[in-house]
Amino acid sequence: MKTTRMSRVNSEIQKHLAEIISKFDDTEISNSIISILKVDTFSDFSLTKVYISVLGAEEKKYSIAAKLNENKKTIRYDLAHAMRLRVVPDIMFIADEFEEKSQRVLKLFEKIEEEHNEE
Q: 96 Cβ partners below 8 Å, 6+ apart?
């Protein structure tokens, strides 16, 4: 169960990471619309999982997550300067698949509805 403090920390990390990523000096990243969907920080502050979504092609989402992970030392450094935490967690960027999964589920429901209407 998440505490109120962890929820606030996650919210602050999300806000600062959005600012850091928007100013990132990489053409692929700066030319993409990146949304930080969820931030999940471990209770011992050892790791923060950052779930991202990118508007556009699915492959682009994975390449941007990989680029962000390649540059996570710089991003973590910038995050440390933006926040007042004793320990700044390691960061892992994850391409979120929720949208694709929800689209598949919706298509299944549509298929079931069509089959039901045919009967």
A: 37, 38, 51, 52, 53, 61
Q: Which residues contact 12 (CB under 8 A, 6 or more apart)?
A: 83
* Domain membership of residue 69 as a residue range: 4-118
pLDDT tens track for 60-113: 888 899 999 999 999 999 999 999 888 899 999 999 876 666 677 788 888 888
| Spatial separation of the C-alpha atoms in residues 39 and 46, rounded to whole Å | 13
Torsion of CA 80, 84, 87, 88, to 10 degrees: -30
Q: Kindly report, residue by residue over 27-69, the tens digit of the pLDDT.
A: 777 788 888 999 999 999 999 999 998 887 677 888 899 999 9
Whichever domain contains 35, its CATH number is 3.30.300.20
> Distances in Å between the alpha carbon of 44 and those of 70, 75, 83?
23, 20, 17
Has this prediction a pTM greater than 0.85?
A: no
Provide the β-strand partners of residue 52.
Answer: 36, 95
Structurally, the chain folds into a number of domains equal to 1
